[in-house]
Amino acid sequence: MTSGKLTGAAVAEHNSKDSCWVIVHGKAYDVTEFLPEHPGGSKIILKYAGKDATEEFDPIHPPDTLDKYLDRSKHLGEVDMATVEQEEKAVDPEETNRLERIKRMPPLAACYNLMDFEAVARQVMKKTAWAYYSSGADDELTMRENHAAFHKIWFRPRVLVDVEHVDLTTTMLGTKCSIPFYVTATALGKLGHPEGEVVLTKAAKEHNVIQMIPTLASCSFDEIVDAKQGDQVQWLQLYVNKDREITRKIIEHAEKRGCKGLFITVDAPQLGRREKDMRSKFSDAGSDVQSGDGSVDRSQGAARAISSFIDPGLSWKDIPWFLSITKMPIILKGVQCVEDVLRAVEAGVHGVVLSNHGGRQLETARSGIEVLAEVMPALRERGWDKRIEVFVDGGVRRATDIIKALCLGAKGVGIGRPFLFAMSSYGLDGVNRAMQLLKDEMEMNMRLIGAQRVEDLNPSLLDIKALLGGHSGVIPSDTLGLGAYDPLEAPRFNEKPKL
Amino acid sequence: MTSGKLTGAAVAEHNSKDSCWVIVHGKAYDVTEFLPEHPGGSKIILKYAGKDATEEFDPIHPPDTLDKYLDRSKHLGEVDMATVEQEEKAVDPEETNRLERIKRMPPLAACYNLMDFEAVARQVMKKTAWAYYSSGADDELTMRENHAAFHKIWFRPRVLVDVEHVDLTTTMLGTKCSIPFYVTATALGKLGHPEGEVVLTKAAKEHNVIQMIPTLASCSFDEIVDAKQGDQVQWLQLYVNKDREITRKIIEHAEKRGCKGLFITVDAPQLGRREKDMRSKFSDAGSDVQSGDGSVDRSQGAARAISSFIDPGLSWKDIPWFLSITKMPIILKGVQCVEDVLRAVEAGVHGVVLSNHGGRQLETARSGIEVLAEVMPALRERGWDKRIEVFVDGGVRRATDIIKALCLGAKGVGIGRPFLFAMSSYGLDGVNRAMQLLKDEMEMNMRLIGAQRVEDLNPSLLDIKALLGGHSGVIPSDTLGLGAYDPLEAPRFNEKPKL
Amino acid sequence: MTSGKLTGAAVAEHNSKDSCWVIVHGKAYDVTEFLPEHPGGSKIILKYAGKDATEEFDPIHPPDTLDKYLDRSKHLGEVDMATVEQEEKAVDPEETNRLERIKRMPPLAACYNLMDFEAVARQVMKKTAWAYYSSGADDELTMRENHAAFHKIWFRPRVLVDVEHVDLTTTMLGTKCSIPFYVTATALGKLGHPEGEVVLTKAAKEHNVIQMIPTLASCSFDEIVDAKQGDQVQWLQLYVNKDREITRKIIEHAEKRGCKGLFITVDAPQLGRREKDMRSKFSDAGSDVQSGDGSVDRSQGAARAISSFIDPGLSWKDIPWFLSITKMPIILKGVQCVEDVLRAVEAGVHGVVLSNHGGRQLETARSGIEVLAEVMPALRERGWDKRIEVFVDGGVRRATDIIKALCLGAKGVGIGRPFLFAMSSYGLDGVNRAMQLLKDEMEMNMRLIGAQRVEDLNPSLLDIKALLGGHSGVIPSDTLGLGAYDPLEAPRFNEKPKL
Amino acid sequence: MTSGKLTGAAVAEHNSKDSCWVIVHGKAYDVTEFLPEHPGGSKIILKYAGKDATEEFDPIHPPDTLDKYLDRSKHLGEVDMATVEQEEKAVDPEETNRLERIKRMPPLAACYNLMDFEAVARQVMKKTAWAYYSSGADDELTMRENHAAFHKIWFRPRVLVDVEHVDLTTTMLGTKCSIPFYVTATALGKLGHPEGEVVLTKAAKEHNVIQMIPTLASCSFDEIVDAKQGDQVQWLQLYVNKDREITRKIIEHAEKRGCKGLFITVDAPQLGRREKDMRSKFSDAGSDVQSGDGSVDRSQGAARAISSFIDPGLSWKDIPWFLSITKMPIILKGVQCVEDVLRAVEAGVHGVVLSNHGGRQLETARSGIEVLAEVMPALRERGWDKRIEVFVDGGVRRATDIIKALCLGAKGVGIGRPFLFAMSSYGLDGVNRAMQLLKDEMEMNMRLIGAQRVEDLNPSLLDIKALLGGHSGVIPSDTLGLGAYDPLEAPRFNEKPKL
């Protein structure tokens, strides 16, 4: 020990489940007793027993995690990092290629739409981070259907409307916004960018849109609220803890810190199986897994590791309690059929988000936009369409998608992954450009559809026949017949130039 | 002859159709007179005349075959195998590649779903075995439609249901099962694994699910029953023999040995043409076939070889006889339209399996799940839905598929090929993992759909509009137009790294 | 001149449009005056001016052509072929490859279905012959739709029907056939096989099916009739000549020679543009075309060359005349909507073929099978369904296709191209095998659908909802979105073998 | 300065925004004060500050631009071009490849349909020109849907109609035309051909079809009118300027010069974002853009650069004014739903073009042909179908497309891009051939559908069920399942030739 600090060698001795120390941000912690309680399993901690775990720890845990969950007595104090042996990492050719690709990245100005950020992110993000952000449930049909569903809706635009001045502003839960989308909650922001969710906070301020703070953020809740400026508005997304006192404290704290909406996630009593994410973890874990006992591998990706506290027993009976402990408007996030929307109105909540959780939970759950087409006529029929605000998320990539949702009756739409991809590729500039592109697109498309204001958007501007027609499965292709067919050719160029 | 055993040379003399001896498991047999009766044709036997036929014999014939069908006088006794000339096999480059692939097989833990086993099996199974298991009728449209049909059904899940405790158990034909699927009958288990169907017996025990024993098993019926443990339940799948006394003996024996259900196959008066299987046999047979008389080749794959005894005359008139000779519940396997289900109820049977035989029989026969959507409303309308149990098989690969079938009214689903692929790739561990994956998926998906028990599953949880909309054919693509179109590109990465 | 024969040199002098001689089958002809009348244009003849044109002449012209159409005075007599200079043909690499492929042809026994013959023919046929047989109108959507339309029809089979004995025989226009298909008329048989249409005559006899003799055969009508054996039945397909006396003679001659049905083609007032065929001719013509005057090229493929005599003025007013000059039953070939079928009944003809001419005439004309689904209910409604026989052709490739047509009410189906492809690849053996495969398939499928006889086939065995639902166009794919999507992967095999 | 001319060196000194001279067609201009007013932004001009800008200037600006918009005092006079330094252009490998491809171009006679010209143009056009012509809005779904929509319409042809004489002529806005299409307005013709729109004028004369003159032509309006011959008829397409006096002058001038129809574009209050076009500009601009301040790039392709004058405030209130200032019939171009067509009738205009601007404006706007199917029954119901003429454009590539539009009730169809592609590839000969191909196709297809005259075309000749059925989105493919599936194979050829 030098100058009152622990040496790397001293820590390295505690490298087993009998005595397990780890270093995080230059400090040592004794996590031996915590091992069985770790929501992500003990295996991943033991991989770093006696070593520096900072790089693995950071994206998954908000900075206040150790203070909150590990008894003070286990905080062993500072480590002289100069004495910690640097681990030689095996050269991973995929990682080498990735770093090389980053050097060749397209300039930000070459991104013309939200898909472009995804195409870039796929090339430049770390494999595990990409897998966590980009993955969906099972065969990912739902995830892809979310965007495809918007393509079942075609416009019936009006011409010769004076659209010199177009106004995109609207109001959501009483807050005026510059454009009818909000940044929806997505977990683990530091997987994509070292600063995490506060990057989104800054972009939301810049563009005057609302940010929904996720329960599973990499940044702590307070860090994200502290990053807020001026009269910027934030909402809180809530996974309900089995221990309701923890939940109560979170809600009361959020209200005190100024959150203007409480979005209770109701589509995730258990977090989904996302096989791309699981597969990415698996190869990451490497040979250890294979040397095991042949039993089912328990490392099931980031999603499972971080969600064990969520209460699968949450039910309609809990709603009055939530209404009793906060003055924030309460919105149920993840409602998926008209029956539950009607029940939500009766339960007295202030809104619903029609969502299948970005296609990450139940496979072949319908898209939010399709459910919206079922929900709004039922609300209007009962005269209930003003009693709640209806939001939609999932698959929104173009301003035309936003306009379609609003024509059908949504108050606003949530956008998640596209901003993560923009942030992961280009940081704050990326998110700002993504938001600006949506504004440019929306201003133009309002003109082209013949609408001056958000209030002008209505169902007569749409043809939604296909949305109501059900979900065709893939048609098995006629392998033999198509294989025998000789396709038509365009005129052939000569093989050699004419002299 | 040494020590009372036949020498290889002595056997080798009998290598023609005039005198044809073969060696199986170290014993010689005179099959000269049996040649014309062999259901698979004489050609395949003659290929091994005077030689050791064990490797070819094993997967196709249960061990008691020679005892049952070849007169004792033709059993020539043991052969001194050391004296049998080892045939030099030509090196088959495809087989060499396969063996090399086996060395590089993914670890079992990398299989995350049932499709993964199929993807691995395709690479590591022997070509002919793969062809037999994986093939379907004609253009294999039906085979592929079976799974695709489930993708026409989308969920209408309920939220805020207390799903802390989820119960997957159900009852089929009076037997309590841990999850509503059973291992359906599939032929020739030893093509995929040297132990054959008993591997499935062991996995079924481990997971407390019912196994249906196939008539065309590689193992003998008694071997499969002997492998049963404790109160494990098995059913019998029956191809009805033209000789009804043989059929009667099989049924009575099965009942005596404890089988709890008799599934009479009604969709196979003749086994289907499976061209992938036929093609694989063909190249296996090699140059012999080509040197023939130019007539139609008679080797039509494994399916045809083993099924010549099946009675195409079986009809509704036979049902009372079956009901009279057994107390086992009788289920018709392979019913394909509502008219026949109603007739089955009137005939007094105890159940039906809606099935197109895994897409291996009639091409463009509708999937079981589609027929189910037609059948159940008709049964309910008549108040007959409790009079029989309705099962479905074909295309089940995900727990969501099981849940969809149960929502529509099925009592349980049969799963066949996926377990064969798991067994062929990873043996018993593979099958166990496949079943465990289904349980994990199903527990999660019950939570996500908002159902605690199997009884909570009902049609209001589904959107089946597309299932009722008929079968689109493939749309001819616009070759010229699409060829001339210049597709959109994502941002381009620079070709050289920035310095 | 030697021994009274012309020398090659003497012929070679007449190599211009001012004096143009050609050699066909060892005889010289002076075609100078015939040049402007040649239906295929003068250019193609001039290519062979002064040379041997036999190879080009043969497939397009029946042997009696020169006798019929060229005045005796222009028949110059025999040529001493030993004195004719052999033209050195430029080596065409495509042709070299084709000849090499022929050496490697799959054995006939490896063809398991009718598509297989097409796949082989595509590789082994001469390019121009393949182009003529395989091409369709415009974008060939209709041609492909013809087969795809059958995939919109799915079966509702019946089980537990005694199908030990299945009877495929039926009667068409009073003739008993072994199976309900006939060999429909297709032009230019010698493009595919040196013997031409008589190959089909022999196979039709072997399998006891009816052959329809084409107007545009490579063999002469009498050659095809002469090839008939025993009580074999043939029909005549007729393109109506502008000169009705020629037509009258053809009909009277056909009746005299025993034809049992007259099929008047009504869907080809002008033969279609088939761009694959045109493109193939074009490159065949080589540099000549390019050196021209830049005007529109007039060589429009084989179809146009041979059809200039067809009368585009043919109309309903002509029908009584046809009925008055023959006792053969008259069938209109190429009817395409219910209105015209009803009119045909009123006009007193004996049958119709619902057909779009194999997709070779009007692009986006509906398939015969789709029109059939519209026609039969209308006929039944009026009680007219016994007044005419309704046939269908186009896209029939499987016995299931035949069964579907018969279930809907067709009396029989015509099959054309598949037999041409079988003949072009494997000659008579090929056609025989193709017909046998259909019989094998049909016997099996009758069993699997639960039908003993052709009369048992009826609409309740089908689900035709999709056929009635209209024609979806191709859905534009979401290029950017799909490009950004990262598809799921199966488990990865290790890159290097484990040691 | 030599002989009164400016030297290149003198011009080159004025190479900044403080003093910016450019050379166009051998004359120098001082554009310093004009920089901020340039509709395409100052950046593109500054790129040529002090240099010769002719090549960039020409396709975008009609020849009279500088005279019209730049004060005489800024016209600096002639430049001695011999003294202007030739800029060494970096060799662009894409451009090198393009020039090489031009040498190998297919002969014109190898183009058999309108798609063929597009396939050739894609290979031989300059990248930026191709991008401007070929691009569409957003994901280009609408652009592709335009042609695909015609494939949802199938024919119900009539047979046995006397079609010896077919008459394609019709009348549009009182002008007799040889065939019912017109050359619709498209911008920037010189991007594709150095002579620009006058090439189209000549072809239109040759084929007796009407040309619509675009506001945004590369040639000046008068040049295009001057190219007119005899009684050739032209129409004017009008983008309405914010300054109505300019608009008035344009209209009055057009009427004076003999234009016979005024087509007011109503679907472009703002020109669309076409990302392919934007992306092409971007890479053209090169490194400059990247060295910028990271803000959103303002160079948004050719479309934006040239359209800033268009008035987004244009509305129904303006229509009476237009009617008051001209006797030309007024047609609204770009109407997209039945409500607006009815309003147009009430407003007293003489026609509408149902169009989504070639898929270049609002993404997922319905095709003109689909809107037509909605519009005509509504007009007929009110007896208004003779009160206006209804035209359609977008996606017309085949004569069958024209016929379908006329069957539904259109008076004629506009064709744009195909003629541009023909012109860009083969000049006037190309456009002539394209028009001739349409005539050949139409004559044949009129025969095949059983129509003698344009008046015979009516809705009973079509099956449009699919057109009315809505827009399916792309169905997410079953990646894992399809990946695991082993497709059927055709017979395999031997690998080595038989000896």
What does this 3D model show about the protein?
4 copies of one chain form a homotetramer. The first copy, chain A, has 499 residues and is an alpha/beta fold. Chain A has 2 domains: 76 residues, Flavocytochrome B2, Chain A, domain 1, CATH 3.10.120.10; 320 residues, Aldolase class I (TIM Barrel, Alpha-Beta Barrel). In chain A, 38% of the residues lie in helices and 11% in strands. In chain A, helix 6 packs antiparallel against helix 19, helix 7 runs antiparallel to helix 12 and helix 9 packs parallel to helix 19. The longest helix of chain A has 33 residues. Chain A is globular. Chains A and D meet through helix 8, strand 4, helix 19 and helix 20 of A and helix 5, helix 6, helix 12, strand 11 and helix 20 of D.
- CATH level-3 fold name of the largest domain in chain A: TIM Barrel
Helical content class of chain A: 25-40%
Strand order of the largest sheet of chain A: 7-14-13-12-11-10-9-8
In CATH terms, the superfamily of the largest domain in chain A is Aldolase class I
Oligomeric state, counting identical vs distinct chains: homotetramer
Structural class of chain A: alpha/beta
- CA radius of gyration of chain A: 25 Å
E-strand count of chain A = 15
Shape of chain A: globular
Approximately what portion of the residues of chain A adopt beta-strand conformation? Answer: 5-15%
Low-pLDDT segments, ≥5 res of chain A? 283-299
InterPro entries (chains A, B, C, D): Aldolase_TIM, Cyt_B5-like_heme/steroid-bd, Cyt_B5-like_heme/steroid_sf, Cyt_B5_heme-BS, FMN-dep_DH, FMN_HAD, FMN_hydac_DH_AS, L-MDH/L-LDH_FMN-bd
Subunit structure (chains A, B, C, D): Homotetramer.
GO cellular component, one term (chains A, B, C, D): mitochondrial intermembrane space
GO molecular function (chains A, B, C, D): heme binding; L-lactate dehydrogenase (cytochrome) activity; metal ion binding
